[in-house]
Amino acid sequence: MTHDNSPKWRAQFTPWKSAGNRTETGVTADEVVRQTGWVFNNETGSDLTLAEFVRTGDEEVRRYMNQFGFSSDTLTNKTLLEIGSGIGRMTAAFTKQCFAVIAADVDAAFLERCHETVGKHGDVAKLRTMHVADGRTLNLPEGCVDIVFSYITLQHCEKNDALSLTTEAIRVARTGGTLLLNYRTWVRADAALLPLGIAMRRLWRIPILGKRLAVTRWSTRLGWQANRLSPDQVLAHLSANSPKGKRLANIVVHHSAKTTRKVNTQDVTVKPMKRVNKSHWWLTATVEGI
Hints:
By secondary structure, the protein is α/β, with parallel strands linked by helices. The chain contains eleven helices and eight strands. It has one domain: Rossmann fold. It has helices at residues 14-23, 29-41, 50-67, 72-75, 91-97, 108-121, 159-172, 190-204, 209-213, 217-223, 231-241, and strands at residues 79-83, 100-105, 127-131, 145-150, 173-184, 246-256, 269-273, 280-289. An eight-stranded mixed sheet has the order 3-2-1-4-5-8-6-7. β1, α5 (91-97) and β2 form a beta-alpha-beta unit. It starts with 13 loop residues before the first helix and ends with a strand. Residues 1-6 have low confidence and may be disordered.
């Protein structure tokens, strides 16, 4: 039997599917956070509430947007697309700052909870949700958003899917729009983490055992990171596959201040950034017309 190309057949999405199934039960929002919160930002605790969960997202949104040069005043007329919204930990803050927000995720159940989260802690009138059914394309018209934001999401996609979503981000951004995209790249620990991750994803495919493993934090953290992409790999892909009539300008690669990062691609600025994981980097750029 040939598997279709939807995320449900991709082993690294098993934890998200398990978490999504939990969100569809009749539990309260606080209970959802206690059961699945660590899937989205490592927050755990028997007493954790949705309000506390969202507060961590508020703080990160404020910090990252300030670091990328966006004040509250500059966001009031912007439409923002969030790729990988989950249950809305950061989405709520975006709806309070932006003109409009599109929350996109591979799991439809997450999007239902995202709507609930924003209804309680954001401005739901500004929210639209979009299911990324195939895990690689965005069902949006060209040039419809001002900012495309993605945090700790693209590393969980297959390599080609992550690159496809990056191209899609350029396509849906307006001329003059901004990309704020987070990726994971190679670190020394990957010599052990990569083979362990591959082994764990194979275990997730085993009936019964796989489902049990996929709801444990240690198992998920080993198996859910499906790719490593360097800045040069992403930029080379975009150079060859940029949407017709568009190109990137003001390209900046932001990396952890605790590491050095070499980028061979020309006309790219490399900057250290505080409070960034050593294995992470950000691509920020302006989308221009040709």
